[in-house]
Design brief:
Layout: H1 3-6, H2 11-30, H3 32-47
Length: about 70
Amino acid sequence: MHFGLILYGGPDQLMPLTSGLAAAFAFLLIFWNKVMVTIGKIGRLFRGSSQTELTPSPHEESSDTAPRN
């Protein structure tokens, strides 16, 4: 018996596999935001860094107008 014949996957074997992969991918896309938040939390846990502030506080922002005397 040929080794290649043992590894043959016909449509009857591949269709359930691809359907399962498509369902898992769709489930991941539905909850993508929650997945990314969870991955970020796990990453921060391993890095040990605190959550950084993305926007500057009001006293750190530069003004477009000239300072008043």
